[in-house]
Amino acid sequence: MAAVLVFTGALCVMLYVLFVYPLLLGYWARHAERPVRRAHIRPSVSIILAVYNGEAFLENKLRSILALDYPREQLEVLVASDGSTDQTNAIAQSFATEGVRLLRLPRGGKSVALNAAIRVALGEILVLTDVRQLLARESVGYLVEAFADPAVGAVSGELMIREGATHQELDIGLYWKFEKWIRKSLSAIDSIFGATGALYAMRRDLAVPIPSNILLDDMYLPLSAFFNGYRLIMDPRALVFDSATALNTEFRRKVRTLAGNYQILLAFPELMGPRNRLWLHFLSYKFGRLLLPWCLMLIAGSSFWLPAPWNVATLAFQVLFYGIAILDFVLPSRVPLKRISSPVRTFVTMMIAAVRGLAVFFVPARSLWKVTS
């Protein structure tokens, strides 16, 4: 009986997080939408770019920033070089005549670099972005329009991942589309639980110092505004573009992201309680995602003790499921089974990443940062 209860409970949690909650969220978003009051305003903006050894991307990134459809007299561009040892500093310095300011900093991590840049930023609105992705010309203009609504504290852009060539890249693209739908729905109701690190904006007076070990500035800063009563929204018009990444690259990024989620739980324990006006959504979405790999483990362990023939059936299904994921490593891309094995492998990889994220409690957080090529 205990095995049946454990198996059923773990399975129900998984089904709720993966299927039931998204259906409920879609219903809420359609029937409880809270519109944002936008206006064509043009406040002063500081664009902050924290970079470590970003020579491969920095020139194109800065050109995309300088090509923005935003009044140049209202735009400040800060490159916070976090102890870069390549040509990052030289590239940033070459744009000095176009108004780009370079902050040369000793290696301290992204949070330290952002704190240094925020301290000297002059804009009413801070726009934080990463070096790899390119900005659409209208992106910053769309972001700031939402600040005409006094209830809005932070605004996230929308990351567009270009179509991948491999099955894994396509699956990651599909996963990201689903993730963006979740965020858009939460934004329509009230708030998302962070922002897209590739591009987001917030009011300068809401920015707080980021602890040096924090991996997710794009959650820490917006959530600080959220718990001061502000909304965190997403504007799907504010586009930023990135190339598709291979599964192993996405795995490293996901380990860091999920490790950062564990940190955020410790930094904002009120997320789990009544101070969080969206506590049900947080438990169903962010916290639920962290529970999924443990549910899989409970399902696997309890299956051995289920009454026959259910034990044999559930174990056989799990062997088949994980076997398909392993088989994907050797299947040629042209084989039709790849359409099944690739998403299964992607899902299993993400579950492993969630467990690996616990490493943040045992190793220095900065060691989980891997440069994306």
Key descriptive features of the protein:
373 residues; alpha/beta; Spore Coat Polysaccharide Biosynthesis Protein SpsA, Chain A; 8-stranded mixed sheet; 8 strands; 48% helix
Description:
With 373 residues, this protein is of the alpha/beta class. The protein has two domains: 102 residues, no CATH class; 200 residues, Spore Coat Polysaccharide Biosynthesis Protein SpsA, Chain A (Alpha-Beta Complex), CATH 3.90.550. 48% of the residues lie in helices and 15% in strands. It contains eleven helices and eight strands. The chain has an eight-stranded mixed beta sheet. Helix 1 packs antiparallel against helix 9. The protein is globular and about 75 Å long. The mean pLDDT is 91.
Chart the SSEs and their pairings:
Elements: H1 2-31, E1 45-51, H2 58-66, E2 75-82, H3 88-93, E3 100-105, H4 110-120, E4 125-129, E5 134-135, H5 139-145, E6 152-161, H6 167-189, E7 199-203, H7 217-226, E8 231-242, H8 247-267, H9 279-303, H10 310-327, H11 338-356
Parallel strand pairs: 1-2, 1-4, 2-3, 6-8
Antiparallel strand pairs: 4-7, 5-8, 6-7
Helix pairs in contact: 1-6, 1-9, 6-11, 8-11, 9-11, 10-11
Concise structural overview:
This protein is an alpha/beta fold and 373 residues long.
Helix/strand class = alpha/beta
Could you tell me the mean pLDDT? Answer: 91
Number of domains: 2
Q: What CATH architecture of the largest domain do you see? A: Alpha-Beta Complex
- Unreliable sequence segments: none
Q: State the fourth-level CATH superfamily of the largest domain.
A: Spore Coat Polysaccharide Biosynthesis Protein SpsA, Chain A
Order of helices and strands: HEHEHEHEEHEHEHEHHHH
The number of distinct β-strands equals 8
Report, as a whole number of angstroms, the end-to-end distance: 50 Å
Largest sheet: 8 strands, mixed
Instruction: Tell me the β content.
Output: 5-15%
> Gyration radius, to the nearest Å?
22 Å
* Top-tier CATH class of the largest domain: Alpha Beta
The third-level CATH topology of the largest domain is Spore Coat Polysaccharide Biosynthesis Protein SpsA, Chain A
Sequence of strands across the biggest β-sheet: 3-2-1-4-7-6-8-5
Portion of residues within helices: 40-55%
Gross morphology: globular
Q: Helix count? A: 11
